[in-house]
Design a protein that fits this description.
The protein has helices spanning 8-38, 61-77, 119-129, 135-145, 161-165, 170-181, 185-188, 194-205, 214-230, 245-254, 256-259, 265-280, 284-301, 318-344, 363-367, 395-409, 418-438, 461-483, 504-527, and strands at residues 97-100, 103-108, 115-117. With 537 residues, it is mainly α. Strands 1-2-3 form a 3-stranded antiparallel beta sheet. α9 runs parallel beside α12 (265-280) and α16 packs antiparallel against α17. The longest helix is centred in the first third of the chain and has 31 residues, at 8-38. The chain is globular. It starts with 7 loop residues before the first helix and ends in a 10-residue tail after the last helix. Its main location: nucleus. It is found in: Nucleus. One of its GO terms (biological process) is DNA-templated transcription.
């Protein structure tokens, strides 16, 4: 027997309506709680007195001032004992930590996404469910299923120094350049400028006698790093060069000691591509170290302050081309930096205080205006130099991520009262909603995704990748922002979770984090066939 379900558009509208109502309760509950703190005799606020933070692009100034005063009064009337930074490490407040009612219950490991509950967390689960879960069995099963990536060691080479400097046949590199230039991969990870890279290849393959110069070592390392990333991405294998990517990465690593003495765009490209190889191979610790090295090379070359950039498609000198490419790698590193900070709790390297984050000219217009490109993996249409790379994420969203870490997950965030934390959550919620409303309807993420989402629109490869990435990033950041409210209102072990003082704003914020996480799973279920394995790291 077949059941008749409501139409998907109807379900989608109902889901958004419920979410909008929940968002409105955040403001209304918070306003009522804080108003009563200022004047207990004042009547309760109307259910429609304020606007939802996630359905209004920007709150009026009067409302912001009013809430600021209410937060201050609320803090005075609700003194809380805040953990000192020394008693709670940075890792305990990073994204992925599990907090409920101010209690730290455990964390979600960034390696595989499996929750690891502390003894306190396991006791809390038992007190609420009455069930003793065999968490140790889950850990043991997970350990058996883990595949350890091979180590990158010089011992794998089993050869002389000449073998270390030996490169694959040049035709393999040329084939890789062709594949890179004519694939959508170039628009997501513009790790090399093909014009500049041709000069690097020429230097790397020039015959030499005697000791290698620093420039030649950097050129060879850059070529090897390039080959290491060409082989880890899926696609049409008839175009991709077939070489051992790990072997190339090992050799490039061995050349690092010579390369880092040459702070140049060639060395930067090599280090960044080695970072890519490591991060997509699951070697996150070594990837973090290479990322730090790439960031500092950018600082040495001035890429963090350079904004006078010629647009793509314009005639440029070699120097202008180098500056443009340097700035592009800066943006790539900036995106990775903010994601890594939120995942690990380690401080970001690139901060707005020290970096010029002026967006490239025409960024917003060009980001969603890619011309009709081929739907195949490799096509000459991707080689058009006037195409602006759209990178692995939205630059404006990356800036909100940086602010999210600073306001909610930094060491300073530990010193904030609950009122200050809720105020910052509301501010970030406003910013991410302003960003969402600025996205064209075709690409705009929905507030919530139902269990049976609409199918992913049939578009060409770059646009479908944008469509998927924007939604996943939006819901992940929403969950990251609102999950921080779980740190509010610590309760003693003797007080029931449901009997403790709870604010409607906090409950709604946690519900939003749950809804965003659920939407991520629903969307992944619908989009999984269109995602490449290397998209996950």
């Amino acid at each position: 027997m077949q059941l008749v379900r409501p139409s998907r558009p109807y379900m989608h509208l109902q889901s958004e309506k419920k979410l909008a109502e929940r968002l409105e309760r955040i403001e209304n509950a918070l306003a009522r709680a804080l108003t009563s703190s200022i004047d207990p005799s004042s009547p309760p606020a109307s259910g429609t007195a304020t606007s939802s933070p996630s359905t209004t692009a920007q709150a009026p100034d009067e409302l912001s001032v009013s809430l600021g005063e209410q937060f201050a009064a609320y803090e005075l009337n609700h003194p809380l004992s805040i953990a000192s930074p020394s008693s709670l490490g940075t890792s305990n407040i990073s994204d992925g930590q599990i907090h409920i009612a101010g209690c730290h219950l455990g964390h979600i490991t960034c390696h595989n996404g499996i929750p690891l509950l502390s003894e306190e967390g396991q006791a809390w689960v038992f007190s609420r469910t009455g069930e003793a879960t065999a968490f140790q069995k889950l850990k043991a099963l997970n350990k058996r299923q883990q595949v350890q990536p091979p180590t990158l060691s010089l011992s794998h080479l089993h050869g002389s120094l000449e073998q270390l400097y030996h490169l694959p046949d040049r035709s393999i590199v040329e084939r890789g350049i062709y594949w890179f230039q004519n694939s959508a991969f170039r628009l997501v990870f513009p790790a090399i400028d093909t014009v500049l890279f041709q000069d690097t290849v020429s230097m790397a393959y020039e015959p030499w006698k005697g000791p290698l110069s620093q420039e030649r070592s950097s050129a060879k390392g850059c070529v090897l790093a390039f080959l290491s990333i060409m082989c880890i991405f899926n696609g049409d294998s008839t175009w991709r060069p077939i070489v051992d990517s790990d072997a190339c990465a090992i050799k490039a690593h061995c050349l690092l000691s010579d390369m880092i003495e040459d702070a140049s765009i060639v060395t930067l490209q090599a280090v960044f591509m080695l970072h890519m190889h490591q991060i997509f191979s699951g070697r996150l610790q070594s990837a973090a170290l290479l990322h730090a090295l790439a960031c500092h090379i950018i600082f040495m070359l001035g890429g963090h302050t350079q904004t006078n950039i010629k647009p793509y498609g314009a005639e440029v000198t070699r120097k202008e081309r180098e500056i443009r490419h340097l700035r592009m790698i800066f943006w790539l590193c900036y995106i990775f930096d903010q994601d890594t900070a939120l995942r690990t709790g380690q401080p970001p390297i690139m901060c707005q205080e020290y970096c010029d984050l002026t967006l490239p000219d025409g960024y917003q217009e060009n980001y969603f205006c890619l011309p009709a490109l081929s739907n195949s993996v490799v096509s000459p249409s991707f080689a058009d130099e006037s195409l602006f790379p759209y990178l692995p994420g939205d630059l404006r969203l990356a800036q909100i991520k940086e602010k999210t870490f600073r306001l909610l997950y930094s060491v300073q965030a530990l010193r904030k009262s609950d009122a200050e934390l809720l105020r910052d959550i509301r501010e970030l919620d406003n910013e991410i909603e302003t960003w969402r409303l600025s996205i064209p309807l075709k690409f705009r993420p929905a507030l919530s995704i139902s269990q049976h989402p609409r199918s992913i629109p049939e578009t060409n490869i770059p646009q479908s990748m944008q469509h998927i990435a924007l939604r996943l990033e939006y819901h992940h950041l929403m969950a990251t922002i609102h999950r921080a409210s779980g740190r509010c209102y610590p309760v003693s072990p003797d007080v029931s979770f449901y009997e403790g003082e709870r604010s409607g704003a906090i409950d709604s914020s946690l519900a939003l984090a749950l809804e965003a996480s659920r939407s991520t799973l629903y969307y992944l279920q619908a989009a999984i066939d269109g995602l490449a394995g290397e998209a996950f790291w």
